[in-house]
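User: Thanks for the earlier help. One more: HDOD domain-containing protein. Can you show the sequence and predicted structure together?

Assistant: Of course, both are below.
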Amino acid sequence: MDKYEQFLKNIPIMPDVATKVLTFAEDMDEVSFAELERLISMDPGLTAKILKVANSSLYARQQQISRLQTAISLMGFKAIKSLIMLLTASNMFSQKSLSPFYKYFWQHSLVTAFISQKLCDMSGASRIREESFLAGLLHDIGQMSLYESELNAYDKIMPFINVDEGKTCSEETSMFGVNHREIGRRIMESWNFPQSFSDTAGEHGNLNIQSPHKEMIVIVSIADLLTSVLHEIDFSEKMKTALDPYLKYSGLKLEQLNYFQDKFMVEMKDDPLFQECKSLFRL
C-alpha cells in the first residue's frame, strides 16, 4: 500500500457543494449565479448558516435577510466561497473540535487565514485575498491526518509545530514516514481543490518554492510564521531570519509586520466574522 493511503483515510470526504463552488469562475454570469444558489440550497443547514452570517453586524441591513439570493448578492461570490469552506470544515471536524490538538489547530489555522488576507491588502495582492484566506485556513490540513493516524503519537511533535517548520517536518518523517506538507498536498488533490491550494499545503514554509502560485505561498508562509509571535513584544533574530526571504519576495517590510504584534488581535476582538468563525470551531 502506498504510504500516503493510510493517512488519506483519516480525513473525511469533502462534500460536493464545497468542491463544486471552488470550480466556479469568479466573474460569474447570471446562469452560474443561479447555479450557485441552487447548489447551496441543496444543503438546508448550510443555507441557514449563510443567512445567519449575512444577518450579522458585518452584513447588517435595515431589513432581515431571509432569502439566499439576497445574501449572495450582498456578500459577493468570493466571501460566499470562503464562508462555505469555513462552514464545511467546521462541520466535518465538529465531533473532535473539543480536543486540545484540534483547538490549537483551528486557532492557528483561523488566525493564519485572517493574517493572510491582511497581508494581501498590505502587499498590493488584493486580487488573491480570498484565495489566500482559504489557503491559509487549510495549509496545515496534513497535520490532522497524521494526528488521527495513531493515538497520542503526534503529541511528541506538538512542541515544534508552528515554531520550527523544518524540525516539525523532519520529526514527522521520522515518526510517520511522511510529513504534513506532503500529505496535505495529497489531501487537497484528493478533494479536487485548485492547484494553488495543494501547492500551498505542500510548499508553505519552504524557501525553494517551485509552484507557479509562489506569491500566495509566500503570503501564507509569512502569516504562518506570524501566528507564533503575535503576543511577543518584538521579533527575535531567528524570526527575522526566517521572515527575510519571504519579505524580499513580497515587498513587505519588517516594520509593517509590527502591526500584527501591536494591534491585529485587538482588532479581531471587534471583527464579527472572526468571532463567528471562533464560534463555529468552538474556540
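User: Great, one quick takeaway?

Assistant: The chain has one domain: 5-280.
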